[in-house]
Amino acid sequence: MTPTTQVNLQNIDAEFTQNWQTLCIGRYSLKVPPELLQGEVTHSMHYDGYKLEVIPNQSQADFDTLVKQTQAKIRTLPAPEGLEAALHREEVPGKNQYLVAYRSGIDKEMPFLSTPEVLSIKGYVLIENKILYAEASALDGYKNVFEGDKDEQGNTINWDMEFKKQYFLGQRILGLAEPAILNRSGTLKPGFCVGNAVLIAGNPVTEQLAKYKAYNRNRGYSFTVRVDYIGRLHEKKLLSDDKEYDLQTNGLGGSVHSRVDQGYAEYKWFYESWQKGVLDHPYIQINFDEELDHPRHGDIAFFDKAFLNLMASFHLRE
Asked: What is the mean pLDDT of the chain?
């Protein structure tokens, strides 16, 4: 029988983790050593079909300039045949919000479509000293180029209606965005966290994807946290590891694959579970390698302790 380890927030070693920092990924949070938040860091955040990004250190003037630059760029686009302008829809519902849809030409994710069948949707919202940027694409139903397209149920697709749905989701994201402020207990509020700085307060209509990845060649580690709420993880076939066991953290049951020897450590934890009607696929991986001159190389006890404390802090924000 596979052994089971259970950890939770109460098992965190306060002294060992006193300098650790909170990281929020989508609807989950965890504490990690500061060195895992350094190096080449990438985020991938998707919510209801929109790619999300946080731009730090922004002012009202920066926001106004960004909007004006976007408007100026759109004015340079050629007007599609039969239409007067490239602009499809634009609104500024408040001083700190802007959402626009325009006929942009070839879409990166759908290169087989050429102008003007693809609409780009871009939104900005200023939240304190940060700008949340949201971007999506939609097909334009202004003419019958898609007449006869069917969905999975065989119904004819109304692309104009599909665009309106996608545009509405952009309005919703901007309206639900708020600062990710730590409360008195030291935990983040519920919601979908973007860049450790902004929350989308609410549940998605369609899908979510959150990923954080840090890689530091000089310090000898890579660190990945991924939460895929709709798709399926492909990392099911892992290496032939030295150790495998079940680990439950704060009610989230998953499997650990680890391999630790002198100078090298690799930990992988993943699980599948339904949370509030949504299928989640959290996945955490940490690699330390002596060949990359990690200062802790050879310290197996440190690797194990750090991993268990990190997993004890991993939880779904209710």
From this structure: 77
Closest C-alpha among 245, 317, 315, 237 to residue 282: 315
Which of the 8 DSSP states describes residue 123?
E
Distance CA 248, CA 218 (A): 33
The reported pTM is: 0.81
**Residue 124: beta bridge partners?**
98, 133
Q: Measure the CA–CA gap between 300 and 257, rounded to whole angstroms.
A: 15
Assigned token pair, 121: 């949707």
Report residue 237's pLDDT band, with 50, 70 and 90 as the boundaries: very low
Place of tokens 């690797």: 303
Q: How many residues does the chain have?
A: 318
Phi, psi of 284 (to 5 degrees): -130, 135
For residues 86 and 89, give the distance between their C-alpha atoms in angstroms, rounded to a whole number.
Answer: 9
Indicate the helix (H) or strand (E) that contains 272: none
